[in-house]
Amino acid sequence: MTDVLEPAEKDAPEKEEPAPILLPPAMLLSRVAEHVYWAGRYLERAEGTARLVKTHTELFVDLPRSVGIGWAPLLAVTGSQEAFDSGYDKVTEDDVVAFLLAEPSNQGSVATCIEQARENLRVTRGLLPRRMWEVANETRQWVHVSAVAGCARGSRMMWTEEVIRRCLTVGGTAASTMSRDLTYAFLEVGRLVERADMTSRVLDVQAGILMTSGDDLPRAYRDLTWMAMLRSVGGEQMYRRQMGGVISAPATIQFLLRDTAFPRSVDHCLTWVANLLIGIPNSSAALAACHDAQRLLLSVWPSELDLDGIHQCVDDLQLAFGRLHDELAASYFPEPAADSAPA
Length: 343
Description:
disordered C terminus, 0% strand, disordered N terminus, 69% helix
């Protein structure tokens, strides 16, 4: 019996694969890159400041008055001592908290950072997931009406926790729904540079307080204070997993500076900044500045650092972060940088 082919199958010509559509590489205006970069920095700064105030309030309530924990360290961590002194006579709890959370004239306050982040996202919202912009806009409106009431100790914990939750929602939306393009790269670079900066500041100021008090603090209070420092960067649970339950100065310094798995360590932040810069055109100068900061970090031996060594290490890192920001601004941002803030 002879096989019979269907006419359609017999006469059908060979189908050719359609040629792929080659799109030109996506470009990003320098002004847009600057707005997105600062949106990332401001969101991270708002979250970090809220977390600092929250954990310091918990520590202040837990420790006895005789320990002498004050509120000046928060001004040192945020680099706002001079701005605070220009408007206030004494360092009191109410004034420091209001200055850091709700003061519109303070460029580093939570309220101002949320306002600036929202404005930078507003002018670039066409490149962002709609939900990301909506959450940022809702957060700005909520902070505008609730910040002053949120400064009171009775409502401060819930208010700062809500700020942290909303900032994480914005970041989570970007991480889960944004294409990994230049817009995402600049958003992440800004967030990571700010995060590394905040972690180093927390380590410098808080470790200085702890190591200065030394044996004057009972062991239980000293451990509580070290843990509060880790909580201020969201690292208490991860520290326990990595280092065990024993608290020590060298282990804490090692964790915050050099732990490659913890996303808020300085090493982790710089590694990811370098990875992102590799995918951005013309990044050689910024990438070299990032590598310089990494080499500086690798030259540090946490087990050998005393108080002076920590201060010197953090000062050197701060200068390295400043050079990294300057290279980013020189390479990608327009002049003058009207919407920028001190790095």
